[in-house]
Amino acid sequence: EETEQLTELFKLLTDKEFRTRLEGVMLLLDHCKNSPRLVSANIVQIFDIFILRLQDCNKKVNQQALEVLVLMIPILRGALRPVLVSLVAAVTENLNSK
């Protein structure tokens, strides 16, 4: 079941259609709230893809990813350590591009 959830999440986050990527961002937030262990156990794989949404060419996806990140940080806290450097770099790049 976890593999299916991750496959679906990855599929949504990498879709060509921006609305589908938005759906993926919201699904990630849902997983953080309801299955934080799933996200924590797969943090590197998930954030390798999620970071791309922080740099998304679509402003709506980009903004939603930033807003979701703010909500995820208190939930995931220490689990973010392995992805912290790349996460900070992506957010910094995002904010510098505005």
TrEMBL record:
InterPro entries: ARM-like, ARM-type_fold
Entries under SUPFAM superfamilies matching the protein: ARM repeat
Protein name: TGRM2 protein
Taxonomic source organism: Thinocorus orbignyianus
Lineage, broadest ranks: Eukaryota, Metazoa, Chordata, Craniata, Vertebrata
